[in-house]
Amino acid sequence: MRIPAHSVCTAVRDDIVAGVYERGSRLTEELLARRYGVSRVPVREALRTLEAEGFVVTRRHAGACVAEPTEHEAGDLLEMRMLLEPLGASRAAQRRTEAHLKVLRGLVRLGQERARRGSSGDLRSLGGWFHETLAQASGSPALASMLTQLRHKIAWMYTVDAPADPVESWAEHGAIVDAVTRGDGERARAITALHAERSTPAHRLRFSGGPERVDRVRTSQPPVNMSGLRN
């Protein structure tokens, strides 16, 4: 049975993000085909996709290698996220379906419950699922795809500390869903921008050689009234 290239692409990308392949290391078609139990054809297609996404580069005399992003490029990703996530939330307020709202509300309930109980083990995965659903609710496949790629790259380049106040963080998630439910695009945009800005200092570069946090990314968000929006 022929394994589709997108499945191989997902597997290789996940391994790059997880650090199985170090930055700058070679990715030969033969090695990858053997590791994933496929022919070279889907591997070749997967490498082309990953190169377009920025995870892989082709070097003369070396072939495909894992990319080596700079600190400047990594910082750009956080700035892009701070622009695109609020846009996605604003679009979601106008285009979301009841199915999207059901999933978002369920995730907020779970997240707030875990945060109150101090069960932080699965909060990160719940948060990822929340933002993935919010992006899908934007009704824009191109925007959702860009946000998905950003999340993958950020997970690859950064370690992320747990929020200092998980309860407050999930109150912000709840406020976003409330604004999306009411169709208030401007409020959804503002709260999502605030949420993204507050989470930025928790990101630490994996390859910076030091423990410094990311603090060069700055925005000027106007105050957002959060009262009455916590679930």
Automatic annotation (TrEMBL):
Biased composition, class Polar residues, residue ranges: 219-231
Residue ranges, annotated region (Disordered): 206-231
Keywords assigned: DNA-binding, Transcription, Transcription regulation
PROSITE patterns: HTH_GNTR
SMART domains in the record: FCD (SM00895), HTH_GNTR (SM00345)
Transmembrane segments: none
Domain of life: Bacteria
UniProt-listed Pfam families: FCD, GntR
HTH gntR-type domain sequence ranges: 2-69
GO-annotated molecular function: DNA binding; DNA-binding transcription factor activity
Name of the protein in question: Transcriptional regulator
Organism from which the protein derives: Streptomyces humidus
Biological classification of the source: Bacteria, Bacillati, Actinomycetota, Actinomycetes, Kitasatosporales
